[in-house]
Amino acid sequence: MTETIKVGVLGALGKVGSEVCRAVEQAPDTELVARIDAGDDLGGLVGSGAEAVVDFTHPDVVMDNLEFCVRHGIHAVVGTTGFDAARLDTLRGWLADSPTTGVLVAPNFSIGALLMMRFAAEAARWFESAEVVELHHPDKADAPSGTARRTAELIAAARRDAGLGPAPDATSTALEGARGADVDGIRVHGLRIRGMVAHQEVVLGGLGETLTIRHDSMDRASFTPGVLAGLRAIADHPGLTVGLDHFLGLD
Ligand SMILES: NC(=O)C1=CN([C@@H]2O[C@H](COP(=O)(O)OP(=O)(O)OC[C@H]3O[C@@H](n4cnc5c(N)ncnc54)[C@H](OP(=O)(O)O)[C@@H]3O)[C@@H](O)[C@H]2O)C=CC1
Ligand SMILES: O=C(O)C1=N[C@H](C(=O)O)C[C@H](O)C1
């Protein structure tokens, strides 16, 4: 990429996209060349000379956006949630036909959230019980959050590696949903509360003690340093990367 990275933002009028536009305009090494929102023609990206896009749109549209970008050799830094193994495989397939293009899919761009996930994975092997509670604004489309899903997967992997079995739970009768969603054997609970932004607790417990690891994004500006870090690194990472931790030396 050039010294100043030419950036297009998809979802530019949205809650996070508008913060990202501000950050890209303010950073000394990035230039905002395209603001795209619902109804806009993606062709404008090509005309703008965008070398990389940032996508904070909606799980229903993000795959179409990425297919377009990869086909045109435009790198992508993706915050939009809703990625499962099948979607990631589809992305890998598109990227195989465009081997110099990089796509970063990150469930959470805040450094605090990345550390919270890492600490949770580290703690998981020491405790019999572990559950995740995610708390978000009520305009959120997906549940559980991408962050909660990823956290639960990391906890489950750490428990497997440590030879831990299922967490104790004597529930034999319950209203549907009362024990949350099952992600890889880990219970994940979602709250949607006006006034909140993005918050998560990981609650662990063993004999006579509990450990709670909590992260709070009080402002969507918390996501922008991570997005800029992704933009600065993406051209040097062709193919698919899942998780900003791989670009920050946290892996
Ligand atoms: N990874 C991370 O760190 C974070 C991820 N997120 C995720 O990012 C996504 C967006 O969140 P948020 O900003 O709160 O949502 P918003 O609804 O506020 O913003 C999304 C924007 O994208 C627009 N949009 C819809 N379709 C298209 C399209 N085809 N092309 C371009 N723009 C489009 C929407 O327009 P319209 O409203 O008219 O449909 C809206 O302006 C969610 O999936 C959320 O979970 C959020 C925060 C952090
Ligand atoms: O929709 C949001 O707001 C957020 N979405 C991401 C997620 O689903 O994990 C990241 C953060 O929690 C905010």
Automatic annotation (TrEMBL):
NAD(+) binds at G11, A12, L13, G14, K15, V16, G79, T80, T81, A106, P107, N108, F109. NCBIfam families: dapB. The gene is dapB. Residues 5-109 form the Dihydrodipicolinate reductase N-terminal domain. Catalyzes the conversion of 4-hydroxy-tetrahydrodipicolinate (HTPA) to tetrahydrodipicolinate. The keyword Zinc does not apply. Keywords: Amino-acid biosynthesis, Cytoplasm, Diaminopimelate biosynthesis, Lysine biosynthesis, NAD, NADP, Oxidoreductase. Pfam families: DapB_C, DapB_N. This is 4-hydroxy-tetrahydrodipicolinate reductase. Homotetramer. The keyword Amino-acid biosynthesis applies. GO terms for molecular function: 4-hydroxy-tetrahydrodipicolinate reductase; NAD binding; NADP binding; oxidoreductase activity, acting on CH or CH2 groups, NAD or NADP as acceptor. (S)-2,3,4,5-tetrahydrodipicolinate binds at H137, G146, T147. Pathway: Amino-acid biosynthesis; L-lysine biosynthesis via DAP pathway; (S)-tetrahydrodipicolinate from L-aspartate: step 4/4. HAMAP family: DapB (MF_00102). GO terms for cellular component: cytosol. SUPFAM superfamilies: Glyceraldehyde-3-phosphate dehydrogenase-like, C-terminal domain, NAD(P)-binding Rossmann-fold domains. Its EC number is 1.17.1.8. PANTHER family: 4-HYDROXY-TETRAHYDRODIPICOLINATE REDUCTASE 1, CHLOROPLASTIC-RELATED (PTHR20836:SF0), DIHYDRODIPICOLINATE REDUCTASE (PTHR20836). Belongs to the DapB family.
